[in-house]
Amino acid sequence: MGIRVAVAGASGYAGGELLRLIAGHPELDLVTATAHSQAGAPVTAVHPQLAGLDLVFAATEPAALADADLVFLALPHGESAALAAALPESVRVVDLGADHRLRDAAAWSRYYGGDHAGAWVYGLPELPGQRARIAAATRVANTGCYAVAITLALAPLVAAGAVAPADVVVVAASGTSGAGRAAKAHLLGSEVMGDLSPYKVGAHQHVPEIKQATGATGLSLTPVLAPMPRGILATVTAVPAGDADPRAVLAQAYADSAFVHVLPEGRWPHTAATLGANSCHLQATVDVDSGRVIVVSAIDNLGKGAAGQAVQCANLMLGLPETTGLSTYGVAP
Fold first, then answer.
1. Which of 17, 47, 197, 251 has the highest count of CB atoms within 10 angstroms of its CB?
2. DSSP 8-state assignment for residue 42
3. Which CATH superfamily is domain 146-301 in?
4. 333 preceded by a cis bond (ω within 30 of 0)
5. Local structure of residue 242 (DSSP, 8 states)
6. Which of 133, 73, 152, 66 is nearest to 316 (CA)?
7. Active site residues
């Protein structure tokens, strides 16, 4: 018997990816998967890619989760806090929602609304000192998907004083799975295919999280819905604050990272290369006309942007090598 884990909200895209990763993990034993409207249905009725996983969705209630050693919460924003509070303190929890990411209650109110549940340890192991904090924690707030791609591209540059933190501009394209599994007219195939469309321009909820994680003080984010199921490609630009080589700064910051790869000179990230992996691909340059630093970042939004990142954090919390059960290599073609 391995380490007993449960997934709440397992009928969604991130929940399904968690089930896939846990099923292939050598140390984790999936004991419970819960859902709301799908309670009572076989897991494979919702996730046919998991054929052979003999499990039925339970109702999302504390009693269904309390016997696990670790619980992943893959619930809509605003639904994790109450459920987590009802679980025994002995149960480790990784929350894939936003409920516990922000330290600033005013920022929570502005971007999400409702009561602020308080901040947990932030689940991005690649930030300085964060692995040790995650390993010592029983409650971890997993990052947002855009936040991962942008923070990994930007945080080392701000920390090194290589860019000005007050003027950061990001344009980032995401696949449709980032919007969740609920049926929405603007996500229909006939609406999405052959089209690029911006959304939440000037007020995306990941902005305060990115500023908190990177030290940026002024950040403009324009998200773009792309006609692909999964993946994020973020282009981050900033004003240089010195003459440091941005690519060299990133390469030094991630020299010992298993999952963050600064690509060879001249090779640029693309989302297909990270499909199915827990990796982030980075490249940086300085624009010859404006002089701005440009960093391009690619991740799988359901991998490093959600489920893979959550398993990476869980590995640290459970005293396992953080790479256990995770791949840094994408699936192609």
1. 17
2. B
3. Dihydrodipicolinate Reductase; domain 2 (3.30.360.10)
4. yes
5. S
6. 133
7. 145
Provide the residue ranges of all domains of the chain, joining segments of one domain with +.
3-142+304-317, 146-301
The residues, ordered by sequence, that sit 6+ positions from 136 with a Cβ below 8 Å of its Cβ are none
- Which pLDDT tens digit goes with each residue over 139-165? 999 999 999 999 999 999 999 999 999
CB-CB contact of 29 with 325 (8 Å): no
Q: Is 66 exposed, middle or buried (0-12, 13-18, 19+ CB in 10 A)?
A: middle
Mean pLDDT, residues 239-243: 95
Distance CA 274, CA 300 (A): 6
pLDDT in tens, 266-281: 999 999 999 999 999 9
β partners of residue 95: 73, 141
Q: Do the two domains 3-142+304-317 and 146-301 of this chain adopt the same fold?
A: no
pLDDT for residue 181: 74
**Phi and psi of 260, rounded to 5°?**
-110, 120
Whole-prediction pTM: 0.96
CA–CA distance from 60 to each of 23, 38, 84, 87, 117 (Å)? 20, 10, 11, 12, 19
Length of the chain measured in residues: 333
Dihedral sign for Cα atoms in the order 163, 165, 171, 172: positive
Question: What is the CATH architecture assignment of 3-142+304-317?
Answer: 3-Layer(aba) Sandwich (3.40)
- Residue 4 burial (CB < 10 Å; 0-12/13-18/19+)? middle
Provide the CB-side half-sphere exposure for 216 (13 A, CA). 30
Three-class secondary structure of residue 303 per DSSP: helix
Residue 1 above 70 pLDDT? Answer: no
Name beta bridge partners: 72: 7, 94
E-only strand ranges, the chain = 3-8, 28-35, 58-59, 70-73, 92-95, 121-123, 139-142, 163-174, 197-198, 219-225, 232-240, 260-262, 280-286, 293-299
DSSP code of residue 264: P
Q: How many helices (H) and strands (E) does the chain have?
A: 11, 14
